[in-house]
Amino acid sequence: MEFFRNVKKRRAGVLVSLPSIVSEHSFECGDIYSLYPLCDWAKDVGFSIIQLLPLNDTGFGYSPYSAISAFAIDPLYISLYKLGQNIKSRKREIRFLKNHPIRIRNRKLEIIRSIYTNHLKEAMLEATYFLEKHPWCYSYAAFRLLYEEFNGKDWWEWPKEFLDPNFAKEHIFTKRREDALFWVYLQKIAYDQLSEVKTHFEDVGVYLKGDMPILTSRNSCDVWEHPEFFIMNLQAGAPPDDFSKTGQTWGFPVLNWEALEKTNYSWWKDRLSYLEHFFHLYRIDHVIGMYRIWAIPSKDTTALHGWFHPQFGIAKEEFIKEGLDPKHFETLGLIHEFIPNHYIFYWDFWKNEGYQNLEEEIKAKLFPLSELHIEEEEKHWRESGEKILEIFDSFSSMIPCAEDLGSVPAFIRDSLFERQMIGIDVVRWTRSFTTGEFIPEELYRENAISVLSTHDTSLAMEWWKKEGDMESKLQFFFDRLGKPRPKSDEETLLGLLEFVFQTSSLFSIQLFQDLALGLPDVLEHPEDHRINVPGTPDHSNWTYRFPVLIEDFASDFQRNFAIRKLLLESDRNT
Which EC numbers does the record give (predicted)? Predict the structure, then answer.
């Protein structure tokens, strides 16, 4: 398809959290209809990519990265206006920066339920036809109905008979078919609306980029139906680093790639095939996890006792060969028998008091064991990750983009480079490996996306004002280029946008809030316009609402002129 072949050109784009982008025809929060005025504005000023955060159903939760289905679109995003229900629940003026997604979703469900009930025969036929074409919706509908009935309680705490998904599906679709098909009907509506958006984008020459989390909530229909695809006694996370001395525990079960391989990765194939109905490109969240992932016992509250999975480990015989008894060091809390007769060394084990108190002769024998299989494990991890990514390429014609932030091991960085995977470079973190200084525009990776902020970071202006040394930032982003130092927030943001668009990166995609020229509240109080603060409670995030209707934002001549000029000068207005 010619449209796909043309994507890899120098382009600029916008990243949005869909519920935050409210239109004149939205019901309280942004929805699928919001993408039409957003697309028209983007095209007008020269953007040709719009990137969305995940749209998956979050149930009673808030984070789109912890959804109850890897497939289902959240009914929150269904446009009532597109359904002919021009219902508005508030005034044109946006007074608050927070949505109430559960309340909004419930109100939408009431309205769509009445449509469903009033046209029951036709609606059930439509849902049944959709179910036949998309069998994943069978388990989703049964799970969603039970999830609602038990008020979001974890599925393993449901009545015993519903722990068997096959029994549950048969029971629900036999005894409560009308209710089950309502959840299918919702997915059919969302599918129709979002696939129509993709067609509209193609007509006007804008690409739509989706987001695919690689991890799945433990309390999801996917884990409920296919526990064999997950290692249930482990959770994914990140090892300790400069930002967190105890690491990160995410709670998501670790993927069982061996079990997935036995099915020819059918679950992944189905996911990618479904996403392709809506998107031209997609972001692989935490692509490092395709190679290896930090696995932690599921009951642990810190990541200190984790290890890179999969791992060969050190065999009992290898300890004995050195005259060491592994059980002794396990008692000291230095190692862990993660599979029979094979041990992993805990992160920073050498800092442990038990290690420090060992005799030097013992240390000299023990420490080298911790590094014994590094080369062969890295080779194995690289081969495994490349195999998975190769298979993903065969499942879809969408262009994959790798979220390769954080401490990326050299072997993974080399692998992604050789595979020509499009990565991501965040300006504030993109620095010289040798000097630690910011790097100039022309030294950015060509096969990457340059950004000022992500959904997990502070906005560009908050970073500018509150994080790092101001003088070094002024010298690099202004003095170095011979530009006058900024006298206002507006001039600062313009300078940062000019820099990021001028980078040699293939794409430059900016968070919507970082384009808020002319909006004093966003510029002066950027901390109030953040989407997510990692490590804080779920309900305090993911509810952000942009303070201006998208139609009003799009009508500002001065802002449009400034952005259009930046994109023209950076040759990104493809």
Answer: 2.4.1.25
